[in-house]
Structure formats: structure tokens, C-alpha cells
Amino acid sequence: MADTTPTFDIVTAGELLAEFVAERCGQRFTEAGRFLGPFPSGAPAIFASQAARMGARVAYAGCVGADGFGELIRERLTADGIDIGAVACDPERPTGTAFVRYRDDGERDFVFNLAHSAAARLALDEAGLARLADTRYLHVMGSSLTSPAAIALIDALVERVHARGGQVSFDPNIRPELMRDPASREAVLRRVDDCDIFLPSEADIAWLGQGESEGETEADTVARLLATKRLSLLVLKRAERGSEAFRAGEHQRVGAFSVTERDPTGAGDCFGGALIAALAAGDSLTRALTLASAAGAHAVTRIGPMEGASDRTTLDALIASHGDLT
Q1: 48 neighbors 54 (Cβ within 8 angstroms)
Q2: At 12, phi and psi to the nearest 5?
Q3: pTM of the full structure
Q4: Structural domain count, the chain
């Protein structure tokens, strides 16, 4: 009998960039200051790194420039065990970049160069699409739905993954600047409609509740999404208050781990990467949520967006040190 096991456990696609992090809190973009980096980054890449470090078979579709930053990113993805056969190298555009600063209140500001970089040049031929569609899970990030090429590629992958019996997970990461673009807004709402696993933050749920019946509460929005959309699992990320999972007839809550935060960038991406990797490995939902919470906590203890990605041994040690969070 032929082996019908998918080639990959998880496939993701989207922006790849080099990130620079302000050295001190309160540092401004309008004055000279020191930045740490370059760090390999991009929300889907952070997700992929975390999932691969937990043993998942992960493939990535993206594009970098033919420069040192592109080489940095490709080497990092490869070192983490990620298949980069669909990561192209564009000789005409530079690798995308991001600069991050932290305000005194801990909030972040970013300066991106994505639209005019190689990150916006996402494309796969039919053979490439067929190869990546042979996966158990396709993970989509809202931050990746920012260019016509990226939207078209992800639309095509979603259609093919579903046709082969795979599932789509979606982290909307809704940002006001993203929603000002009609094409991006439509693409985000399309993914809400056709995903199987939905990973919103509290802010995402609030945004999705706007324009619905007057006085719709967070609980109302969650119930409406479960009742009217394709999704079978909704995991609501509550940052330092942990997470909640909802599916038919089931509700689970997992608390957060208490750690010393150094850099919050990538915490939600690591949460998602650990969750989907654990589900792909056959872990129970409770175990997957606990691993995801630990991954998000560990991520904030390291400076750099992908530097906090961790393996199961590290996460198990963190879990053991804190006890049961359910």
C-alpha cells in the first residue's frame, strides 16, 4: 500500500526580513542611537522556527535579496531544519528590513521596508504549489497579506491544502495600517472565513466584533465565529493572562508563565508555532496549549525576534518549574 503521509507537517509563507532592535528603552528614531542586529525575522519565519525546533517537518515559501541579510535568513532557516526549497533569492531587490524601538511604556514602534523589497516578490509555479500543498497544516499570518503577490500565493495554497484534506490555521495579527488597504482587509476576512484553526488576540476579536449587532461582547463574537465559520478550534491569546481554547462543547483555559521580559517581539508567533507543532505531533489540546504558553513566555526572555524559539526539552523544563497552569 502506498504511503499517504503528507510530505510536511506544516507549511507557511510570507515576509522574510532582517530586524534591528533599539538597544535602550525610550530610544527614538529621530536621533542617533545604537541598534542590535541584524536578526532574522518575519512573523511566519518566527512561527516556522518554533515549530521546526519542536520536531515538526516545516517548509517555507518566501523571498530574500541576493545580499548578506538574505544569506543570514536562509542560513538560519536551514539551521532550524526548515525546508527552504521555495525561498527564492531576488537579484534585483534587497532583503526586507525592520527597525524596532521601545517606548518608555513598553509599547513598540516599527519602521519597515517591505513593499519595495524582495519580501514582496512571492511566487510559486504549479509544481511548487503542489509540493507545498502536501502538508497537514498550512499556517497563514495576517501580516503576510500585504501585497497582491502574497495574497494570490496564499489563496492558491489554501485552496490546494483543503483539496488534499489538510487544515489551515490563521493568526490575523490585525493592524490598523493593514486594514486601511481594501485588498488586505478582504484577504484577512477571507482567511477568517476559510481557516480551520483561528488564533486571534483580544484586539483581533474586538475588531471582528465591530459592525455586528450592537453590544456584541467578546463571548458573543467567539460564539458567532464558531457557529457561522468553517473553523473548528478558536484559541484566544490573552498575553500575560494566558489563553483560552474554544471548540464544539469544550472550553479550556491555560494561564501564563511568569518570566522576566526582555523583548516581546515574536512571543505570539512562538505561541502559534508551538501550538500547531504540538497538534501535528498528536498532543492533546491541553498539552498543546501548555507548550504554546511556555513557548510564548520563553520567547520574551531573549532579545531578537527568533532568538527565543525553543525545543521541547527547554519548554518541558519551564513547565516543570512552574507547575500546572490549567
Answers
A1: no
A2: -140, 165
A3: 0.94
A4: 1
